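Reviewer 2 asked us to include a model.

Predict the structure of this chain.
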Amino acid sequence: MNANEAILYWADEYSRMAETYDRLVVPRFEPIAQLVANLAAPKSGEFFLDLGTGTGLLARVLSPLVAPQTVVAIDLADGAISVGSYRAGDAGIRNIRFEMMDSRNIVYRGGLFDAVVSNMGIPSLGYDRAFAEVRRVLKPDGRLVFSEWAAGLPEGSAALQDLIAKYRTTAPSRTLAALREADRLASESDEGRAISDPVRVAEALRAAGFAQIDTVSRSFSVRFPTARDLVAFEGSWGPTDRELSEMPAASRASLDVDLAAMVASRTAADGFEEPWKIHVYRARPG
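Predicted model (structure tokens):
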């Protein structure tokens, strides 16, 4: 499997899970999107491009700030684009243009956008091509602002992934086997690991022609009422949902028991907290 194939498998999974993702993930990502928007400092009339928009959270945050100008919101997952379009329309937002597009091949002319932004949407494989495309479509005085996970999963997420590895089916469907290979490619490749390292990201940005690069690091505290709520959240990404769905019933029951025990020591009456460590990058063309 190559990077292009892996990205297409992930896009299909995001499409399949788009409505669940929008319901369970997007509300928890809103503070991060607000931080990206604040650091991007949008002004009325500026032309923004949102990479890997998903169901359009960041685009919706930006739309009233750049009005009457349009936010172009792109993603490879057609299902996510459909949900995003519906959400924006239902909210009466008319200045977002959703398009199915690869951020590694942005089909707009050069020097067009005042700013390019992304909220956890930069591809983990091929981000060097995405940075080069962003540099091409930005105005000379434009800026790029995007968020990314820091290295290392939050405690609960890491525990869940360890349990999935322990209990997962030994007879995966063809799609699940391909997703496992895609995840292996990302986790074991130097490129896949580098996206969570601010030093390596800055190197890639400079290689693409950016300068004035700075990183803002933040920790967000996210509360889950129960371990089951964490499982539902993590399952909103397609690969984890497939692992859980194909897991033998007895193994799945054991996973739930083990995970609940792992988080019990830090669970209060209102649940437990997961600390999310996030980097937000700001860069301008050199």
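Residues 3-285 form a domain with the Rossmann fold fold (CATH 3.40.50.150). The chain has a mean pLDDT of 96. We have added this to the supplementary material.
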